[in-house]
């Protein structure tokens, strides 16, 4: 599995160590879902980029916190598990993440992790269209976030 996390923010506050921990948590989730091969990209950018993407792909001319673009066919996985494939791209607005972290009373890193997990869950088929589906998605987000927070802290 190849997970690429890239920050386009002019003043990146997300350390390489944190992105390594986050990549590990996302990789674990993908492995649990049978997606242990392939590539996932996470791009941390500003509101301008997320608003442009939201307008272009969703017809909504407003910034948003996270967007996911799946490269998996509707049918799911490739026929051979040995084949590498692109899972998708997740775009996170660092500007929205800062605001939401402050509103929630937790760290920016936790908010970025939550948004990345949320975006990945969308890529692998989770949705929050109904209250039942939203509850399942929130529970899975919580499970993966807790696993990430249990990883050794190390030097950031």
Rg, rounded, reads 15 Å
- Could you tell me the strand content as a percent range? 15-25%
* Outline: globular
Can you count the helices? 5
CATH class: Alpha Beta
Structural class: alpha/beta
Cross-sheet strand order for the largest sheet: 1-2-4-3
Helix percent reads 40-55%
Run of helices and strands = EHEHEEHHH
Q: Which stretches of 5+ consecutive residues score pLDDT under 50?
A: none
Tell me the domain tally: 1
First and last CA, distance:
24 Å
CATH superfamily: Metalloproteases ("zincins"), catalytic domain
Looking at CATH, which topology would you report?
A: Collagenase (Catalytic Domain)
* Overall pLDDT: 85
Q: Which CATH architecture? A: 3-Layer(aba) Sandwich
Tell me the total number of β-strands.
4
Main beta-sheet annotation: 4 strands, mixed
Q: Can you describe what's shown?
A:
This protein has a single domain, classed as Metalloproteases ("zincins"), catalytic domain (Collagenase (Catalytic Domain), 3-Layer(aba) Sandwich), CATH 3.40.390.30. Helices cover 49% and strands 17% of the residues. The model has no long low-confidence stretch (mean pLDDT 85). It has 5 helices and 4 strands. With 156 residues, the chain is α/β, with parallel strands linked by helices. A 4-stranded mixed beta sheet has the order 1-2-4-3, with helices on both faces. Helix 1 (16-32) crosses helix 5, helix 3 (94-104) packs across helix 4 (108-123) and helix 4 crosses helix 5 (131-150). The protein starts with a strand and ends in a 6-residue tail after the last helix.
């Amino acid at each position: 599995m190849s997970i690429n996390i890239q920050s386009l923010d002019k003043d990146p506050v997300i350390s390489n160590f944190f992105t390594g921990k986050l990549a590990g948590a996302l990789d674990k989730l993908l492995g649990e879902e049978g997606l242990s091969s392939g590539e996932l990209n996470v791009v941390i950018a500003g509101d301008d980029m997320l608003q442009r993407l939201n307008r272009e792909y969703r017809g909504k001319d407003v910034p948003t916190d996270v967007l996911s673009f799946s490269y998996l066919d509707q049918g799911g996985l490739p026929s051979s598990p040995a084949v590498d494939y692109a899972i998708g791209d997740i775009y996170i607005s660092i500007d929205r993440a800062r605001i939401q972290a402050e509103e929630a009373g937790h760290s920016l890193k936790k908010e970025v992790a939550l948004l990345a997990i949320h975006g990945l869950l969308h890529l692998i088929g989770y949705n929050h269209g109904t209250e039942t589906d939203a509850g399942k998605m929130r529970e899975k987000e919580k499970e993966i976030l807790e696993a990430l927070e249990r990883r050794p802290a190390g030097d950031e």
